[in-house]
Amino acid sequence: MVVPLALLPLLAAFPAPPAPDDDAAVSPPPPRTLVVETPPLHVDRIYRSMQGPSDRVPVDADGLDWVTAIRSEVIDAGDGARLGDEFFCHSQMQVGLGSQLLVMATGAEEIRFPDGFGVRMTEWTRRGGLNFFGMALNNHVAPIDRHVRIRATVEYRSAEDVGDAPLRELTMTPIVMSVRDARHRPADAGGASDVSTHCVLVDDLPVHWMVPPGKQLTRRRIDVRPWLTSERATVHYVATHLHNHGVSMRLRDVTADEVLWEAVVENEPDRVQIARIPAYSSAEGFPLRRDHEYEIEARYDNTSDRPIDAMAMMGVYWRPAP
Ligand SMILES: [Cu+2]
User: Fold this and answer.
1) Least packed by Cβ within 10 Å: which of 187, 210, 245, 283?
2) Do residues 154 and 176 both lie within one domain?
3) Phi/psi zone of residue 291: left (φ > 0), alpha (ψ -120 to 50 degrees), beta?
4) How far away, in angstroms, is 315 Cα from ligand 1 center?
């Protein structure tokens, strides 16, 4: 995992000459690895998104200062064998029961920041209260009686590892689609005819709603001013969360009339199951500005004959622009 596969042929073809001492002194050591696992979770029936068994475990790691990559997977609690990602709902590194620092979900099980970037954990590691939370899922297999764990493999560097050249620090902000309660829809709701503004909510939550059979488009204006601490910021990584039947989610700069990122879901060929939701990852990044307006759009296509549940979220990792 440490050496990108694409580089292996190059390394084989051009063996590196012995490094002079100067180079050896400045090249960073490879990342350290930490494995964290939830307690066993009992999967005993079909669980839809956000309804599976879940648990959290304290994360205690000396030197966990900069996270550069993290991957989640579901394993059998007995023999440790890996289960398919269709059993993975979501997981996160969080502070206590609150602030999410890193979020992974179905189809976006791995976060790997561009070289030189990371999420700084020092404060939370020192204070304690850092947790790893994981939730299982089961859309397909019944009957079932299995105990599983959600495992995270974290790649990180300590403050000593990075020395005088700290990584470029990223902060995660969730940008979340929300809809209105269909029961409170006024007779003349107005708005664009292609956009669903009022939906049947799950558990009365505006961020978790039902999609009737057919296509559905939701759209929401985003105000970045409450959380963007500088006039300009740059986004270097975006992880997107959608449920099965999700088609795509995009972030648009309304002021500049520009789509900044659109994640298009890749499904498994033979069943309704998200295989992958591509992440945005770039050392150059795209800009966010306090004086611009933004919107998110989520597309679902419910090809079944009954309502399905939906969410749409982008975990946006950004840093203030100089
Ligand atoms: Cu969800």
Assistant:
1) 187
2) no
3) alpha
4) 12
Q: Report CA(89)–ligand 1 centroid distance (Å).
A: 7
Closest CA to 298 of 272, 267, 266, 263: 263
Which pTM value belongs to this model? 0.88
User: What is the span of the domain harbouring residue 119?
Assistant: 29-159
Query: Number of structural domains, the chain?
Result: 2
136-194: per-residue pLDDT in tens?
999 999 999 999 999 999 999 999 999 888 899 999 999 999 998 888 887 776 667 78
Asked if residue 5 is part of any domain, the answer here is: no
- CA–centroid distance, residue 91 to ligand 1 (Å): 11
Report pLDDT digits (tens) over 13-53.
333 444 444 444 456 678 999 999 999 999 999 998 889 99
Q: At 25, is the secondary structure helix, strand, or coil?
A: helix
- Distance of CA 321 from the midpoint of ligand 1 (Å): 31
Do 144 and 262 fall into the same domain? no
Going by C-alpha positions, the residue among 297, 311, 309, 314 that lies closest to residue 217 is 297
Write the CATH number for 243.
Answer: 2.60.120.230
Please tell me the distance from the alpha carbon of residue 55 to that of residue 38, in angstroms, as a whole number. Answer: 6
What spacing in Å lies between the alpha carbon of 63 and ligand 1's midpoint? 32
CA of 303 to the centre of ligand 1 (A): 19
65, with CB counted inside 10 A (0-12, 13-18, 19+), is: buried
Chain segment 284-294, per-residue pLDDT in tens = 999 999 999 99
30 Cα–ligand 1 center, Å: 34
Question: Is-contact 183 207, C-beta < 8 A?
Answer: no
Closest CA to 198 of 211, 185, 209: 185
* Distance of CA 310 from the midpoint of ligand 1 (Å): 7
Residues 199 and 142 in one domain: no
- Quickly list H helices, the chain: 8-13, 21-26, 122-127, 159-162
